[in-house]
């Protein structure tokens, strides 16, 4: 049986406030508290095999009657009968997290203010998209102008 206290502590750490706010930094009377955007997600799944009693209905079988407990695609046994499905099972769990700097809270003699983080990659991508759109618009306008002449 899993140790529920250990799991609870791990979840508290994984989803706690420390994942969003970093350790405060103080220099020359100014306190800086870094912050991040954190997104998490998870999923799980499971599988199964034969039903109790050893019968397994294939997709398309009516109530498991036709071919119950057999798989027509399986290699036949030496006596020519289709092979019986084996018991099976399975399961899994996945977890993901994405974090990126959001900015920082700055506390000084003037009060508290938010200083956003600058995402240079987003700025460059936005500039590239704007350039491509402007180039396409100019090319379209020149093509229309040439057709009119």
Descriptive terms for the model:
149 residues, alpha+beta, four-stranded antiparallel beta sheet, 4 strands, flat
Helix/sheet category: alpha+beta
- Describe the sheet with the most strands: 4 strands, antiparallel
Which residues form runs of ≥5 with pLDDT under 50?
A: 59-73
Question: How helical, in percent, are the residues?
Answer: 25-40%
Number of strands: 4
Query: Mean pLDDT across all residues, rounded?
Result: 77
The DSSP helix count reads 2
| Proportion of residues in extended strands | 25-35%
Q: What is the straight-line distance between the termini? A: 82 Å
Order of strands across the widest beta sheet? Answer: 1-2-3-4
| Shape estimate | flat
The rounded Rg comes to 31 Å
What series of H and E elements makes up the topology?
A: HEEEEH
